[in-house]
Amino acid sequence: MTLYLSFYFLSATLILTPSHDPEGKGVSLSSLPSKQPGEQPGGEEGDKPLSSAWQAALGATSTMDKEKQERKRVVRKPIKVVERPERALFCLGLKNPIRSLCITIVEYKAFEYLILLTIFANCIALAVFTPFPFGDSNAVNATLEKVEYIFLVIFTLECVMKIIAYGFILHPGAYLRNTWNLLDFIIVVIGVVSTALSNLMKDGFDVKALRAFRVLRPLRLVSGVPSLQVVLNSILKAMIPLLHIALLVIFVIIIYAIIGLELFSGKMHKTCFDNVTDQIALDDPHPCGDAGYQCTGVGQVCRLYWEGPNYGITNFDNFGLAMLTVFQCVTNEGWTNVLYNVNDACGNQWPWIYFLSLIILGSFFVLNLVLGVLSGEFSKEREKAKARGDFHKLREKQQIEEDLRGYLDWITQAGEFLHFSFVTQKSIHYYNQQTLSDQLGL
């Protein structure tokens, strides 16, 4: 920059200093002929056509003027910048040194990594902490209680600095306008309140319930890890489609519960009894029936008054238990045991159709719709997150290009000025020489 300024002042001095002729009269830019390049002589007698050097100088000047005018016509697209409120907490402006410092710290990448490491360390401390009954403790727990104050101070400072940097809640982009920041704020407030109450009211207040909220601190990882935000946002966005699928699942369960109520009601309370002792004769009781399992032991008879499989829960005696049994089959949890019990009670010719269709329709088809919805929403959120990341990168790139373009424009204008000064000085010098030659008759 110093070199360019030196050229600038040197050129200005050369232009403004008159070139002396033999008679002592200086020649300046204002005294030069005002003819256009290529203009032929005419009018007064004695006019001469301009020399080729003078025409080239004036042509270069007009070309530079046209380039400047075309450059002014170019409309550059405005670059969006991060919008921050003019004031935070009603008193801290953008130029406030405290707020500027907070903005610099919270937007520094190393600060984010520090918070993530603190959260991981807090999770490890929560896992190592061993609760004892009756308020007992040990040396490890006592050390962890002291370390807890360090974690609380770090999280509180982070919360305060972000509130100072972005504002609290009253404007777009404020700290509490972000859902994950709201979760962080609630966790910090609960930690501060529980710590304050435990120190101020040691004998009259039990803060164990509030301390239980410490388990929420690992959720702060969501606010620092974008991939976790994508997963949770996709689950939240899928709630309404999942509700529709849940209604479809309930409809299928109701239909099959009604069918099971009609086909298998009261059929699962027979088992093999000892005819002498009138006690259940099987070590592992299961239903029996005329078309199903036959009691083949000596003195055994298939008789009623058994509560049924699974302590009388797995059956189709009423609508509620039928829905519960169908739901167990839909979840694929022990549905084969239900099928075997029904086969023992009613035979194995037709019940398999009921259960096979239930598994195909209710489990393989309907429940897989849940995975489809979650997968679709996850893909959408991932694309949105990728688009946001690309937008931020593009914005930073455009900002850098805009700054570089400004520097290049400044350098170009300085170079054009130096070139114009050089050509003009050469033209004046040549014109003075021509004038001197004409006067001397050379």
TrEMBL record:
Annotated positions binding Ca(2+): E333
A GO cellular component annotation in the UniProt record: voltage-gated calcium channel complex
Entry's Gene Ontology molecular function annotations: high voltage-gated calcium channel activity; metal ion binding
Parts of the chain that traverse the membrane: 110-129, 149-170, 182-201, 238-261, 352-374
A UniProt-annotated Pfam family: Ion_trans
Region of interest: Disordered: 25-50
Family: Belongs to the calcium channel alpha-1 subunit (TC 1.A.1.11) family.
Function: Voltage-sensitive calcium channels (VSCC) mediate the entry of calcium ions into excitable cells and are also involved in a variety of calcium-dependent processes, including muscle contraction, hormone or neurotransmitter release, gene expression, cell motility, cell division and cell death.
Protein name: Voltage-dependent L-type calcium channel subunit alpha
Organism of provenance: Trichonephila clavata (Joro spider)
Organism phylogeny: Eukaryota, Metazoa, Ecdysozoa, Arthropoda, Chelicerata
